[in-house]
Specification:
heterotetramer; A alpha/beta (337); B alpha/beta (330); C mainly alpha (315); D mainly alpha (290); A: 33% helix; D: 290 residues; MetI-like fold; 10 helices; 76% helix
Amino acid sequence: MALLEVKKLKVYYQTGRGVNQAVDGISFELDQGSSIGLVGESGCGKSTTVKGIVRVMPTNAFIPEGEVYFNGSDILKSAEKEMRQLRWRDISIVPQAAMDSLNPVYTVRNQFLEVMQLKGDLNKKQALVRAKELFALVGLNSDLLNYYPHQFSGGMKQRAVIALALALNPRLIITDEPVTALDVIVQHQILNELKELRQQLGLAMVMITHDISVVAQTCDQIAVMYAGKIVEKGKGKQVLKNPLHPYTMGLKNCFPNLNQPNKELIAIAGSPPDLIDPPPGCRFYERCPFAMTQCQLEEPGLEELESGHLSACFLREDIDQYRNKAKEVETWLQVII
Amino acid sequence: MATSDYIIELHQAKKFFPIRPKLFRRSGSDDYLKAVNGVSFKLKQGESLGLAGESGCGKTTTGKILLKLCAMTGGSYFFKGRDITTLTAKEEIKSFRKQAQLIFQNPYDALNPRFTIYRSLLEPLIIHNLGTQQERRDMIRAVMERVNLKPAETFFEKYPHQMSGGQLQRVVLARALIVDPAFIVADEPVSMLDVSVRAGVLNLMKEITEKMDLTTVYISHDLSLIQYMCDYTAIMYLGKIVELGPSRELIAAPIHPYTKALISAVPIPDPDVANEAVNISNNVPSPINLPPGCIFQDRCPVVTQLCRQEEPVFSEVAAGHRVACHQAET
Amino acid sequence: MILTMWVIATILFFIFRLMPGNPLVAYIDPTFTEEQQQILLKQFGLDQPLWYQYFVFLKNLGQGELGDSFFFRDSVVNVIGKVLPNTIYLMLLSLLLAYTIGIMSGIYLAWKRGERIETVGIVLTLFTRAAPQFWVGMILLAVFSFRFGLFPSGGASAAGTVYASEWEKLLSPSFYHHLFLPALTLAIYLLGLPLLLMRSNMLDVMKEAYVDMASMRGLSKLRVMLKYAARNACLPVVTAMAVGIGYAMGGNVVIETVFSWPGLGRLLVKAVSTSDYPLAQGAFILIAGVMVIMNFVADLLYSILDPRVTLENRR
Amino acid sequence: MGAIKKTVAGISGFFRQDKFAVTGVLIYLFFLLIAILAPWLAPYNPHEMIREGSQFMFNRPPDGQFILGTTNMGRDIFSQLVYGARPALTVGFSAAFFVMVAGTLVGLIAGYYRGKVDQLLMRITDIAFGIPFTPFVIVLVGFLGPSIWNIVMAMALLLWRDTARVIRSQVLTVRERGFIEAARVSGASDLRIIFIYIAPNILPLSFLYGSLAIGWAILTEAAVSFLGFGDPQVISWGYMLNDAYVSQALSRGAFYWFIPPGICVMLAVMAGFYIGRGSEEILHPRLKNN
């Protein structure tokens, strides 16, 4: 049984102009100890997905349908009180803005002890011992516990937030752009640490990022999101080496690669559709160089084309040929917005 | 004054910020944040240089110095053979402003929210008194088409909040180009844009600067981007350039231990490439009171006694490739 | 701070000396002869050149010497000293009421964001801000004092009562009976600031990542609201309270007059209307001094309460 | 279904926000109309001691003849109320105008030039903040003589301070924004940057403070008149309240005398608050998207 199973989850936002279908029916599952990367551009719904899973959402967000099974039970149906029990004990989060996720007017120690005493049923002494252990685990000096968050550097803060996420031995950790704001060297170290900690503690992880280079090296599985939907899902290697969806192919062209100085960058023309009134067919239709009439009318479902490798696209045969075409600039110039 | 071969000649540029003394702390004489501490390079027409480094290394301040947006604490800066630091006459400053332009990191913030796109592009023409009414309209149309905002008229009356990030960055580029500059500084030009849009803006900038033979300085934390865009790369650390050379050479065969560490830390979008170990510590010393010797001594894996006593000279190891490291000299 | 005080004192000096309106009118019997008037002028140093008067004024001010009141024929310090405690009691009680109720209601309204009760609350608060204080006082007087006779109609003590000491006054129920209506009026007026400030700070703070994260840590909503949102949101309110003390001193003028409360504000009004300028000057300088000090205290409080301030200054 | 409900709630909420400003403007238009039409609306001369035959109409409760009754001197309260709109609006708008212009200019210059200029101007502002407002107005009016223009001047001398401080901090933020740096890079002069780039972006804020100042000014004029330092030639709402207070209207329970002027003051002040709240949204449409 999978540890986390998200089924057709929808998270919508109520806005002044109408309902924004930010996350529109996404499904994925995650086994104990494995990891998945949700990759996509801003506004594709990856952060909203996480908020929906743990149900800590802005007041104008709501979940019209979907199921989220954690350890076999549907947590979307559980009461807020039970949900609160689940948060941090079983599912913890390393947020996007780690810098701002600690309360500036309390010491780090205060915030560690609070979680462990209230949620972990430890007494103060035990909690303090545990806090020191956690700091050691992420490579921070335990003296730093007595400091205020603003006295930490970006990397230190990120480590402290990771330590806090591990405080109650959760089974699942969700990291939202965990290294985006950091310098490359620190970024590199934190990613490696996350990977080691995960193996050491047998944690499952959902990682959210816009940067395919980051998931390439940290996650077993990758799900590529576009405009509120998962368009492609598979093992890391499958998705990055042999993409099935034209969007993934295009996305790969957008990243410069330090090892390939001659690689030419190719942009994807246009921008994602307005999710308040999305078009009926494939949401990538307008920007897709291989779009067909069918794509405009009908929405392609996510289908398994190779073992464990799924794509939501009507291109289901001869994908190699398209993949090669997608590497050429001319292909993408044909798209007229 | 004789014109020089070089568009940009920056020599030992320094910018120190005084640290405000605290009420109950005795203030030492050395309380300066040395944001830029002796940066030198020269650029010929059409050449491009990328300034890379971690946050706080002084790359953005260097960019500001190049645009005369902040006064230098020390050093000299010649632009087309003219000493820029001593410019005082309003007309001369204006003429420099016409030739040196800036592309911003945040396109959402770089345009006046109360101006239409047309008005934003008209401003530089009014300020520098270029063209007649009709000519101005044609110039604006031409420059917008040049940055692929076609048909230009459909954008004239739009406000910045009605446009996407990629389109805005094109407008910003157009605003820089409309006065026909010789030199452009681009400060993290795409870091605020979505990945799929970045490539378009980068390619456009590359194409235009090459076609117009513009001298450019790119400031970025992203080495892969700099390699893609620039002829030369300079790696900055704590206000100094530690290594400068032709981009591909520098990235393929880095010499300075800091450059090596930086390059090995860059994530590669390829699951087959094994993730190299970075072997330097992550404590960046404060740029306020630095010890004597090499600025990298505390983090360097190959540090020697010499490094703790003497500052290495920034010297040439190959044609156009300079490094500030004692190990590189032998 | 001392500079600010000096400038204010100087402005004040010149305002008072250059004003038309002969201060002697209030003091001198019209039947006095020219000669007698001259003697009085000399007695108050009014025959000296202006610059000389200015230096004497500064010197005296430095020594805490404010001259003699024309009207009360007593030293200004004494006159003010007698009424000052009353003003302080009034101010403290109403600040306490206003800030306790204000902060709590502010938190409550932020919590009820977007609900009908929020709009109602805000409109009601705006009413308290917009209603003239003295008018609110008049209504309270007319209803509770004159119509129902529940509270005395003015003053700080029942007619004929003389307290032997401040302590005796503070222990007497009659004093609080007199204090209640003016304090309530002032509190109603002061309430709006902490309430609106607290609410908008709460709404800002609730957008911060650490508040979201606290909920994600599975902490209860009440705990998140109080320990995370309210604790951070109340910093500016606490400093506003320091500034509020200064404003309350100044704002008392009207309320003290309505309730005939023997305080500093009423004294100032009386002094101005009788052209008793040493007294008016003294009262004004005292109120201004409190304001200047409280502005300074507010800055100080802010840096003490917020651990980030010292760092952010350095950036 | 829930979605539709939420949409409706969202839209009506949006209108509710704007309604504030509309209400404020309507209230001012209403008072303006009353002020202009006062001679036609008021049944009596507000100063006139009305008598029927030889009988003075002292202390008459409201009836068909005197809508709001008469004062203890036999003056028609309703007529006084109508004429009271004139000084209120005059004081409110003239003080607010001065406050807006002076405060905005000081804030713009201090915020843009920073350094010594800023320090000097902010020191002056600090001093203004150290002077207690109501006592200052009372003292100044008390000695300069009770005239409506002295009241306006006394208020204007101090009220600019809030606007200046807020505008300055806003200017400090705006001047760090990219488009200001862009203007500087394109060689725009300081004056051009201040008035063409920065000023339009802080205008909503100075309107906001201007409209709040209308409220404060009306309120202060009422307080000063109540304390007896008002212009005796002018019948203002504050004067009416003073009249009622000193004539024992409270003990007589003559609510019809002192309730209406208070409500008028309150409405006028509220209208200022409402416009302040709304104009921000009208002039700065992008705020709505967030």
